[in-house]
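Entry 14. Structure prediction run on the chain below.
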Amino acid sequence: SREQSRADELAHTLGMDADAITGIACDLQQPGAAASLSEDLAARGIAVTHLVNNARSMSTLAVQADGCTARQAFMGEFELDVVAPYELTMSLARSAAHQLQTVVNI
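Output returned:
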């Protein structure tokens, strides 16, 4: 999640304890965020083996009255759907701390 409180809320909603699920705040649209996330996970002793890229942003999904998406919103969606997953996948794949085996893009 981009907000730690939302990540913590999800863990609580799922009824998981701190050992079963780790919520981490990260805005993948920020430069360097994917590398920082990869490093943060490794520092926590979490080795990623499977990745599901599923990030969404309600602001970039918005459409105007004519049914079209504004160019800036479309570019934000492209960044979140294509650029960020690529950066995160490559950061995890290149890291010796992770053993990335499977990537699913939704």
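The radius of gyration is 15 Å.
Filed with the rest of this week's runs.
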